[in-house]
Design brief:
The protein is an all-alpha fold and 95 residues long. The chain is built from five helices and no strands.
Length: 95
Amino acid sequence: MSAQPVHAEPDPRDPQVIYDRLPEQARPKFLTEYHAAVDASHDLAGYRGLRQLLKTWSALAFAYAKPDFHQRYEDVRDGVGEYVSMDEVFSRHDA
């Protein structure tokens, strides 16, 4: 018999976890995109889109939680500093 963890971390790609971690102002956009992706996922080809959406919003929820998120967002928008693309973030995470 193996020991089970007392408290497992929530799946960061769970739609409820994403929703709960997002700031109030981002939640309507997430829900709109999520519902559209769920509708599209009824077609087998659309399932990948749903997975990608959850992956992207999970990363956004993580970013929003950082205290300096808004300053970093403005810096990226204004071309200040060096940053990596979301594709690079995902490739590092999936490795």
